[in-house]
Structures
1.
Amino acid sequence: MKNSSLSNKKSRHFSTQTDRNEIWQYNSTQILAPKNEGIIMIYSMTAFASLEIKKDWGNAVWEIRSVNQRYLETFFRLPEQFRSLENTLRETLRQKLTRGKIECTLRIDNKKQTAAELHINQELATQVLQSLQWLKQQAGEGELNLTDVLRYPGVVEVPEQDVDLISQDLLAAFEQVVSEFIAMRQREGEKIHTLLTQRLEAIHEEQQKVRSKMPEILQWQRERMLQRFEEVQLQPDPQRLEQELIMLAQRIDVAEELDRLQLHVKETQNILRKGGAVGRKLDFMMQELNRESNTLASKSINVDVTNSAIELKVLIEQMREQIQNLE
């Protein structure tokens, strides 16, 4: 930073003449506008995907939804007989995702198969029925209900399902729905990328606007100081006046802030260009951009510069809000 500051000082030329028509030169460093590199592979943390499968054993529906989260958190809602799959499912997500609160829900409907394959244990049902009839005769009251017979354990036999086969189908379907979920995250990430690119270009335009106005602002400050001397009918020492003007220029000089601002813009673009899990890095860059915009505002002595500083803060805040959604 010191070298940059010295370079900025050398780039200014202050004449020793005190003529009001004298031009105060201010040479700013030209920085090219950021280029749009096309679609960047970044991912939103907010997404939803669902998948339904139909098999001989029944139907199943997977649903995955996610919201913003600092770290990766996974939650599963599974039928009791498939709880054993949770560790495998969680590992699948950890291999593909890095951030977000992920909720996975599995719903299974196998009523058709169950209804088609129900068996009645006739021997046991007959014994239960006879026992209930005997009790009725002994008590001399009450009514006989066939539902009571069917509810007796073992009367209705439900064939055991091949849990291993169903588990294989469910795991394969989960892999597929995760792929769709990631694709949804990518599509949302592309939208955020477009917005960030637009805001970065707007930040570049604002800093260029301020940079172009600095010679005019410095000249205006010089003329204003000379006018004050004339109003009180004082003839300042040329050398002392030039020193005062140099000190004033240094106090309001924002060239270093503008340079750093543009460097941060370029670094933000580099992060986007690499893609992947960029949310935390971009969040840090927003802090750096905000710091420079605050310094720019504090040094402002011109309404145009103040307005640009405010616009920069608005643009940076808009970017920061969107970056919170990125993985």
2.
Amino acid sequence: MSTRRSARLRDQPTQAVAAPDLPAEEPRKTTKRKAPATKTDDETVAKSRKKIEAAPKPDPKPAVKTQKARVGAGAKKTTTVAAQATAGATSLALSSLPQEILDMIFESIDDTKSLGRLSKTCKTYYALVTPQLYKRLDVWVSFHAHIAKLIRTIDPLLSIEQKKQLKKVGTYKGQQESFPSKVDQRKKPEIANFVKQALLGIGDPGKNHREIVHRYVDEAMKNMHNLEIVETIRLTEAIAKSLAEQRNLKALALRVNNVGERYTEAMAKIKNLQHLVLELSGYYDYTFRSEINIPGSLIRNSRSTLRSLIVDSDSFTSLRFNDLGQPGQATESGGEKLLPVLESFSMSGSSSMEPCDKETLANSIDFVALKELKFGSLSGDTKLIFEYLADSFLVAHQDEKTEIKLRNLSMNMELKTWGVPQEARQATLDAKIRFISSFDTLSSLTLDAYGEYRRDLPNPGLETSLLQGILKHEHLTRLKISTQGYRSDHDMPRLEPDTVSTLINGLSNLKELEFFPSIQHLDEIGKILSRGRNLTSITIITMRAWTTTEECHEQSKEFVTNVAHGVLERNLDSDVKAFKWEEHSTIQHVRIDYIVWELGSKLGKAKKGMKKANKFTVASKPKREVMYREITDHMRKPMDYGLDPTWMNRVAKDLI
């Protein structure tokens, strides 16, 4: 019996019903309710209706364009939101790095303007960048125009109460005009704790402005408690007291001439310094009646930690180095030195070296263990000191168990011995040369003011004993025979081509070379220098041998041409198809007096101060070429009225 049709339909599997393709509904436009027209508005409404009816009907195409614009706006909005989300994720990822890594990243950025702009992007970057922005306090005041910048630099480090007190001393440009009332007036800014380095160039702006300058620096020093490096050219009671209270102070440079007894008690509390500079102009022992003088106490309190010491004083004896330790604690022949961990020592400026100074130095410093040694301009009986050094290094050189660590040596070869016979002067020079010849570990050697002589005398050149002493240091990478100044009626010993050839052949590791060349043989000297295997920088000093700027520029270009062609014309018979300068020479810079040239196969894009690049070629082989250009203006340093940050930069790098 057949089943009913309704039963058969019930037993079939159910199928999904496809929805018909209906057009997408446009969003309804919501219109605002109009207020009912009043009798007074009837005429206005009627006129508006007539204008609407008279207006042409819009084309339907713009409606589509409007719809596309809406879609584009939505996409743009979505892209913006996505970009913000990505930036937020990147910011969070950067913030998740350890603080040490973040500090390394921001410390590698030298552009403070870029750091300042970065700190304004968000609170996270502000918190990360601010410690680096305020890490160093650098101020310089020498006259009235500098005071405004001083105030703007120091103002963020002061409390509101300090700012108000300073305004009472004097009103100056850069001071804050208004202050909030609902804050703690005595609260010290957190920024002051970020300052770790202070470069205080406190000059004398004049009698009327001296007080405000000193007060600003004194108030700032009261708030900075995490200083590690301080360099100052003026010492006040507030600065001395603040230095004594520092717990993290590791390096101090006193370049002052106003040291007095009133600072002795505070400065005697400073200890455990690693780097110390004492440039004490006009300092002499009889100005102190105290048993403990400032230089002696600073060195004595840091005996076990001091690693570098620079002494520039009118009187070396007045520094009283012999008071550093107990009598008999160290001897000239052996025993523990008074400064056992010293690695770098520099001495200059002394106007009266005495025989006892040699014993003091011998008892205080282990010169063989030094890595860097510098003797500036000295006068008096210096022969004994260099004879002692020559004997000490010769003994150490012959002893296989003793390691000579000295790598950098700088010596002023000028003999300031007025009234001393020529034989005594020559004996002092011979002692210096014997010291250079007593060992062979140097990688850098600088000889200043060597052998100045009158122009009416023949050129003495480089003494044979000195040349042989230099050649003993086979690992030299830097050799400078220069001067810091000269007299118009005097000249410096000039190197002949054979001497230059001996240096180039004997010092294969030489990278930087500076000397006085023989003017008559510049072409030949240029060809010889082109043979330097590792030379990267060449500097020759002519001492204004040419009268006009045009002559100087012409001669310098001719010298560079000789250096370049000395390389290009080498092995012309070889079958080298592609010539690359860097594969045949390492010379990159050539300086003649103040004019600087750059050489290379590709010099890159010209920067500010660089002239248009040209090229040297060989006529017989045009493919042999090298680019060159003058970069004098680019290399010239801008005039800076502040303190030279070289020492602070070096110490800061060492303390990392």
